[in-house]
Amino acid sequence: MNLKRRHFLKFLGATAGSVVLEPVLASNNKYPSSLAEETVAQTSAKFLAKLPSSLNFTPIKIPIPLDTNIPLGIKIGSSQEQIQAYSTYEVKDDLVLPKEFTYDVIAAWGDRVGDSRFGYNNDYLSLVETAPNEGFLTVNFEDLSGTTWIQTYPLVIGKELPFAEVKAKVEAEGKEGELDAFTLIESNPLKQQIEAISREGLIDRGIGVISVRRNADGKWERTYSDADRRITGISGLDDPSQSLKCTGPAVTVFTKQDKLGYDDELGDRIIGTFQNCAGGTTPWGTVMSAEENFQHQVPEEVMADGSSFTPSAKPFLMDDEDLNGEANVFGLAGNKYGWMVEIDPANPKDYGTKHTWLGRYRHEAFGIRAEAGKNLAVYSGCDRRGGHLYKFISAERVKDPQDKANSRLLETGMLYGAKFNPDGTGEWVALNPQTTVDPVIPIHVAGGIVTLPNRDREVGGIMEVTQEFDIVRYKQQFKTLGDLYQGDNEREKQGAILVDAHFAANAAGITCTARPEDTMVAEDGTLYIAFTSGSPGSDGGPDVRIFQGPKGETPYEYGWVVKLAEDNNDPSALTFRWSSLAMGGEPAKGGAGFANPDNLEIDRSGNLWVVTDISTSVHNKAVPNRTEDGQPLSGKDLSGVFGNNSIWFVPTTGDLAGEAYPFAIGPMECECTGPFFSQDWSTLFVSVQHPGEKYGIRQDMAVEEREFNLLTTDSQSFSQKRQVPLGSNWPSLATNQPPRPALVAIRRLDGNAIS
What we know:
By secondary structure, the protein is of the alpha+beta class. Among the domains are: 115-360, no CATH class; 436-509, no CATH class. The chain has ten helices and 39 strands. Strand 8 and strand 9 form a beta hairpin. The longest helix is centred in the first third of the chain and has 15 residues, at 189-203.
């Protein structure tokens, strides 16, 4: 019998003594050993009858066998039938959907938006409907896929930039592709060239607002209203009226005169927003945009008072793979990035407000509970290996959840970090000056590294700790977070803590987690969290007591979807219970069939729609053998079996809770991000970002055959020959045309609701 992912109520899977199992479901025997005794249609009909009533599509065929894909109409009941069905597989350079569905491209990189253009690598998106069948799409633009952006920029944008010349000069005058353009004199031709490239790179990041209407044919189309606009990485640089605003205690850090570190001399005014990844929509019709990997643009580390390191600490970078550090040449202050940004799409004069009570870290995710008579709760995660889960609780209570005045509730409250206990309980710990310093112990973290605020507070920045005796010394030196951070008053100290939230949370002993990439609150108050990957990184990893695979594996690469319930179902509760809903990985090894869950969406029946975030570097990477030098492969070494990134439907209740049904597969080398339903549930909007990220333009429909050692659902190994396109021509699908990130609207051909 297979270990089933839905049998695990917690991540504790190492031994029989540490696993709490549900009763074994009859679905372990739901397939006949042979389909010879009944037709595939009959078997499919019986299986479909057991599915959730809200499953309104025929699951598509992914590269590996699943327990849940008998409805495909192919013989996969027995291992031999699975081997026959999956011995060959052809990957498509297209958005592959069930037969009942189609998609329309709404906008793609380079299309006009206001006085600018649709940016690159669109991520979270939101439809705020202002009337029946019309409204505003708000879209995040996260980052650049350096090599592909450079290759396709002149073809899509229609102008040239000095890429080759700058790259050669940076290699000659810089170090490892980096050069500090900030300190070059203004008349230096190289600085001017770097500024030209950096300006265009930052224009392609940020946020966009697009007005749309649904036509008589059921298709959404753009209306190009006066409210269409771009908030870019340099908004406010040339026109101060387009600067971003800010609220909360960190404002005192920005405006303080005698900073320990760098001062951009702009006070509380902020130039632009960038690395905008996940996000969320409030009940009152504003959109929240999360600044994630801001460390690619500006220094992440700060001084003890929360002020920035000099822009020189993050030089301009241009090499064979990456283009980053575009903020360097403009002298942007690092402590003003890494926040949650709120905008009102219906207000054409709104260029965004950064609410600093929500903390500065690598923001990924936004979940909100706004219930009349209760405190507002906002959930978010820090998408880094070893990042934390956070909750903000407002000081005042919600009166009317749809009142736009609720934005003021984000200006006063407290930020908390989550401590998970192995027994399925947890608590929220305030990140304030009174909080006790009690750092995470390195032995409890995958990779054995914990980063803490530097012991030398005059130098600022961070330090790596690998030994427990260093933790003991640290606690002797600093008793509270207020001892770690400097300020002339409590509010300044609070501001410095919020600026340095991730490292302050490490010092406070907040649980290191497995890349929390989304947080979604269901109608009943349940919080769903997508933890993308349990592998460690260069500066941290998840708590190995919590984040384990089906058999207790640590580290475990393929991720989890977790449920969190506040005690007494109270948004302001400081204790909670948590459990696992679904676990990534191969079905034969106890996984749900997907890998690396990322953004989440909840449909009207309370079920989850999950997109995946498998690293492009391992998409369809050949796995001809499952051992190397006599040792079994694990983690990313096996990730190639899952193919392209995909979209899944996951029931949250009933006997099939935690099962996963494949809905869509993305084009080559992309992510499908930011899923969002229209109010009538008939359209699922999706961002397709970085198609062709590895190989760029697919030349002459190039394809490569690769070999994979796969497992049937009962663990029998077999070989698959897989046809893999090299690069992408999506969305045009025309030979040798450049790939373009784009926003699409998915709908049923019959016009009915998806969910």
